[in-house]
Specification:
Layout: H1 2-16, E1 27-29, E2 37-47, E3 52-62, E4 65-71, E5 82-85, E6 89-93, E7 95-97, H2 117-126, E8 129-134, H3 142-150, E9 158-161, E10 165-167, H4 174-180, H5 183-190, E11 195-196, H6 200-213, E12 218-221, H7 234-246, E13 251-254, H8 258-267, E14 271-272, H9 283-291, E15 296-297, H10 300-309, H11 318-323, H12 326-330, H13 344-353, H14 355-367, E16 372-373, H15 386-397, H16 402-408, H17 411-418, E17 436-440, E18 453-458, E19 461-462, E20 464-466
The structure holds zinc ion.
Amino acid sequence: MRSFESVLAFFLIALLGCGGEPVPTVDVRLPASPPSSVLIQDVSVFEVETGTVTPNRDVLLEAALIVGIEPHGRLEGRGDTLIVDGAGATLVPGLIDMHGHIVSNSNPSWNRGSPDPEANLRAYAYAGVTTVFDPSDMSDDPWGRRARVAAGELVGPRIFTTGPLLTTPDGHPIAIIQQLAPWWISWYLEGLVAVPLPDVAAAEKQVDAIATNGADAVKIVIDAIPLEAPRMPPEIAKAVVERARSHGLRTVAHIGTTQDAREAADAGVALWVHGVYKERIPDDQIAVLAAYGIPMVATVEVFDRYARGSRGPIVPTRLERETVPADVLESFYPVPSDFEVGTLRGWLELAGETMDIRIDNVRRLREAGVTILAGSDTQSGVFPGAGLHRELGHLVRTGMTPAEAIRAATLDAAIWLADGDEPDSGIIAVGKRADLLLVEGDPTRDLDALSDLRAVFLAGMPIERTPVPGP
Ligand SMILES: [Zn+2]
């Protein structure tokens, strides 16, 4: 059957690193001769905390930090200061994707190639995503990649990562492999998508290993995909959270239902990395969930995309056209008639039935005081960088203003990442990281302006951005 073969081919290609023809990717690079400082002149500055825009400012960047913000004309650069014209544009803090994946491939499910992590990093940076929290990197060396970006050897967003994904035996995403891959290879592939935890001792051992490697957090899966798959028992979730805590680490959870959210919270997790997407949260449970004080990464787009993808072609956004080859964008529809999803069909149908419910869940949780964060969950159809911009559009549909949606992808995310310390990014202020976007117009009036990028600054350096070649 085609589905078995193509899915198998995808995994084998992904594992062995022997992809087919190279796919064009965006080119992003640091300036060949880096200036000692950058002066952005006469720019409007987006003030995240008040949601307002202050016009006519000069902003000075030096040594990867914002070092000056003054009314236009009051700041001067030195000899080799790079002057950037900010007139007509708004300066916004670099975006934080709170559910990004570095080692993923966004091609159609029936036609995947091998993941290209470095191209993904470039695509995030191209789109103005300057920090990624990656809650599942099963590759050999997430820690080395994180260090190479920090050292400037790779161009891309700053990485926070959990490394491997912890799940229950036969749970998500192992169950998907069991569903789609033949038995004779399934046992092997399963070990490459998640680490199963059969008991408390195994949970503690895995958390010890992840902590020793230097993870920024620990990730567990509680949700069931397909719908019949087993869920992580509460005592295992609790064991993970407590062991992680002993290493000074927080645990984050993949959830799908109200019950998942409650069990994760009762176990002590610090972040829901999906919204409740499978059902309408009962009215009396909204206050219960809000009382935990845990932020939620809504991830509306990823489920929306699976639901819409089978119904008709999806019109690409500006950033998708700039970062993804046209033939890849066109290859999502129609879905090949012989593409079999087996028992995943029930899950896909549910994702379609709950589209408006997800929006409504986020709206009601937010009204009850839950902090909503922005995350794309990069995967098939959800492109690195461009996917986060789509997610911000969904957040506006939940009732946020554009300014509030941007805050969900900047300051509020930076506060979570800082884990009780003063956030080093997420607002435009002296002393903060110079991770910035310069966008045409005013994104607080029209969110589309956020993807009309004049410049992106990574640690104070303007990056050269070249889109994928046109058709
Ligand atoms: Zn994910």
